């Protein structure tokens, strides 16, 4: 079994499409993190000076001055009247450019990030890319027909399935844990460097979020692999996943089932350790356990069907 | 009693779809003795590949028993697969890996050192191209790589399904010589082919199937018989025919010219004609080839089109 696992690791390492997907799994979250850090950076002294200069310049522009004059001459057009006290100040505030117009700044709030930020987006990206990696890895064996060649050397199909599944799971787990942890650790370090909230409890919450997301993405990669072993085609698997993602939610809504059966809230429940969803006008709680059971049944069901199918069906 | 390397008994394979049930192999009893090259003959679609795929665990038999080296398969296949090298249908490797990488993955899966990969590559004449991507190979090179893969195990049984497909004449001859050498070295080779002339050149025994059924089996000599017919070329065929008939020999005019004489004793022909003062210029034994035998055997059958049974 060890030699089989080593062989599958080598096969994965030599498969360029899989490597590209793994690289994308690192690069895309990194880009998201960089964008987040950039967008939340406090303005520097240089930027503040530049903004002040820009404001002064804009205030002197003829258009702005015309507007100011118009406000003073016809205050009713600007929501004021002649009796308004301190009309000069009111009109200046309404018409003259303000510094915040040129340098809006939202500080990096990790608590908010955990609840509403891009963390869920990173989990979604990892999930999609690792699922594709699991699918592509084994889909190639079926498309090229090399699966039958492998079975001529190791006819115990269960071992072949297990070795490939183990490699997909291990690689996905390592990549997703490293990427998620690096993502949150980076944000936490940045928050600390900016003297924003950076307690060890907060770091723990961030890493827990990342770990939950990583486990979810790993399970998705395993499901993608199992589904491809079932359908024996990358294209068929992607087609089914696309149909499920589009049609699944629609079908659940058409059947009148409430939000607890939708994929999105269940994913949120897993990574956020519980969430809420709206049942008409009532907000209801959804536990992490519910999410785990929801997706667990899908993953285990797919894996069992995949193992049985691979063990029994003729291999082309 | 001869040891049998491959045995099947009552083997049957059905492919069932919604509309029909196709019987690819039915009640096939196959016995391949150890050593030598055994031809497995039949037209396209006669069930050869399906039988091989069942023996190798790639397809499940609907019914029947199979044994490799006396071990029941697929139950004990893991115990004997290390002694079996096989090329089934067209070669199947990862197109983006080099030939060497493909072989390395297969070798490492059974703990074979990379040095044997080099040996196998050298044996099939792929040295120098083994680091090129598989998808850049010609069909002939792909066949060679597939044969190299079978050699990784140093097999006692080699199952080759149409191994010369796509090879040029020189390649065909090379593979044929390799097969013959392997057969002589003690490896049992099961050579599946529908090119009967090819099989006749290298095989010591053969099994012929059609429509998934066994039609004939035995050594090539047994299948073709001893050859009891001779073509005789003489200046006066009419006089020769009269002399032969008078001596109790059955003769008829041969489409290729001269006479065709049926006898177990060719000396009787020369003796009779010499006694009549007729000097023959040619006496050629007419031995049926496998192709002729096969066509005679299957005359009237709609072979090559697999059995269809409508589901009722």
Automatic annotation (TrEMBL), chain A:
> Membrane-crossing residues?
119-140, 161-189, 209-231, 238-257, 292-311
For this UniProt record, the keywords arranged alphabetically read as follows:
Membrane, Transmembrane, Transmembrane helix
Q: Please verify whether the record's keywords include Transmembrane.
A: yes
Q: What is this protein called?
A: ABC-type transport system involved in multi-copper enzyme maturation, permease component
UniProtKB/TrEMBL annotation, chain B:
Q: Does the keyword ATP-binding apply?
A: yes
What SMART domains does UniProt report for this protein, alphabetically? AAA
Q: Which Gene3D superfamilies match?
A: P-loop containing nucleotide triphosphate hydrolases
Is the keyword rRNA-binding assigned to this protein?
Answer: no
- Which keywords belong to this entry? ATP-binding, Nucleotide-binding, Transport
| PROSITE patterns cross-referenced by the UniProt entry | ABC_TRANSPORTER_1, ABC_TRANSPORTER_2
Annotated protein name in UniProt: ABC-2 type transport system ATP-binding protein
- What does the sequence similarity comment in the record state about its family? Belongs to the ABC transporter superfamily.
Q: Give the highest taxon in the source lineage.
A: Bacteria
